[in-house]
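Researcher: Structure prediction, please.
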Amino acid sequence: MLDIRLIRAEPERVKAELAKVGFPAAEVDALLDADRRRREALHALETLRAERTNASKAIRDLKDPAERERAIAAQRAVGERIAAAEAAAAAAEADFERRMLEVPNLPHPDVPVGPDESANVVVRSVGEPRRLDFPALPHWDLGPQLGIIDFERGVKVSGSRFYVLRGAGARLQRALITWMLDLHTREHGYVEVYPPAMVKRECLVGTGNLPKFGDNLYRDAEEDLWFVPTAEVPVTNLYRDEVLEAERLPIRHVAYTPCFRREKMSAGRDVRGIKRGHQFDKVELVKFVRPETSDAELAGLLDDAEDVCRRLGLAYRIVQMCTGDLSFVAAMKYDIEVWAPGSGEWLEVSSCSNFRDFQARRAGIRYRPAPRARPELVHTLNGSGLALPRVLIAVLETYQRADRSVSLPEVLRPYVGADVIAAQDPT
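Model: Predicted structure follows.
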């Protein structure tokens, strides 16, 4: 959430910056109007309350019973006006809050300006996409041939966009998760947490998923608990409404969770394989840092996520999002895409973002720069480290062999308990 004081003080600059991310100037004007009406309603309410307080004091000094009764009757009318003013103030406050929650973050000054993904910038490419001397199979053919991906039973159990990993496929998925957690905790300095996969509504408001993306989330309507779309949500909210001491920063967490999202796809696009599903696994990196360090922390976060690709021996590239392709909450964002030779495409396996104080203001996460100093908002960052099943796709397709077995990267072999995945009994 942006600072309303900034919007009031520099409305034209805010409009110009938000225009870069596609947010209409008219919505900023509507927000400022809602802010004005809210403040006017609160002022009217406080004026009436002060009037009632003063009148109550005067009534105590009245000696004439009749005069006292008339004053009390007048007070009842003031009470009715106050009740109406309270309702008006509450409605104005709700309208203001709704509009504030719908305003996206301002882009970082270093983000390239562009209307959509066509203006994204490939910052660098690392490694050569593997060239196979035999026809490469996509994972949706290779997986069933190996007996490690079962599409039919996934649909049978849960419907479209679900699948079952079997045998070595399930072990490979589990191995990737465990190895990534070990890498980030043992070598990159993150502290692992295992958070709940269901959260309260206010947690999703705090991270910016609600109200804007409610249609893409799953929830338990009876308890109003929401299934997490990413571990970023519960991990960020670990410190919601807290004031952290400066010496605790930076806080770096890594977490594995299943993730749940409604995937709404056009017919014929991304419908094959396991690239997009309603449920998937992800290892997430989350940081809480001092504002002056957040740009450097983003570079470190990106390198930590890249390290997974490097050690797996996958060809990958870093893509910086332009203003028109930033997420709602990000001030700056880089995607990591790995090459999948069977599918013949680059697959996004991580988005590394600096949110600055956008999430912290929504979630009330502050820190005290010095003893007895006034608390300030932290900066939050997050990135996948990495997301499955796309990493699994890249491993299978990159390391497939002519006999349709898969030679595993060395770092995974101790975790899988095998060097090669060969065809297995499909039962």
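Model: The first strand starts at residue 121 and ends at 126.
Researcher: Thanks, that helps.
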